[in-house]
Amino acid sequence: MYANIEKQREYQKLYYQEHRDSILARTKAYAKEHPEEKREAVRRHRLANADKINARTREQRKCDPEKYREYNKNYREKNRKRLIVREREYYKAHIEEVRERHRKWYANNRDKARARHLRWASKNRDYLSKKHKEWYMKNRGAALVNAARRRSIKADIPFALDAHIDEIQRRIDVGVCELTGIAFDLTKDGIIRVRPNAPSIDRIVPARGYVIDNVRVVAMAANTMLMNWGEEFAFRMAQSWVQKAKSSSKEQRSFSCDMM
User: What pTM does this model have?
Assistant: First the structure.
């Protein structure tokens, strides 16, 4: 029985080699006339022979990886819209499965994933800058909380603002600094985070860290002035500055009168 099977396979192989063009033409014509039946037949074949097909594909990729990369690149370019629609539909139907698979892959390929992201980001700087600005304008509260989280990790201080992003956003939407009453600069052009009256998160008591009852949304200039020395020191400095400015103004007016 085994010998007969091997003999039949050899005969089919030789027959295919001799009549390859006619067989392919006939197969393409059938697939064109019966696309649904052809897809179903291919699907059944792949399901029944998944391990064998995957092993054969891996071996072929090892032999000529550049050929497969070029083929996949050309295929995606020709079928970009159809593939995007199909991938989105699959993602919606299997969202948790896909996320778990991505998490596992990233955990095992962190360096590879970061290198790939950096390559992509270097080629799409303008696109990323535009998208970042758009996201920042719509999610100022989340952006400030993210920045505070990074600072807390670096300074090794408490952080508990993730559950209060909406509260931070509400304070920003009020539109004025909670310390000075100066109106925030919420315009969309330029680099917002370095403007003197752009909103920022300030710690009332620096050592307590970023917790909701220890933070306020203040102008960037006020936050920079407060730094790690607190409100009392900044207030004394501001008072001294105002008094000196007033005395200088009086002296200047007095000097002007004497000259007259």
Answer: 0.54
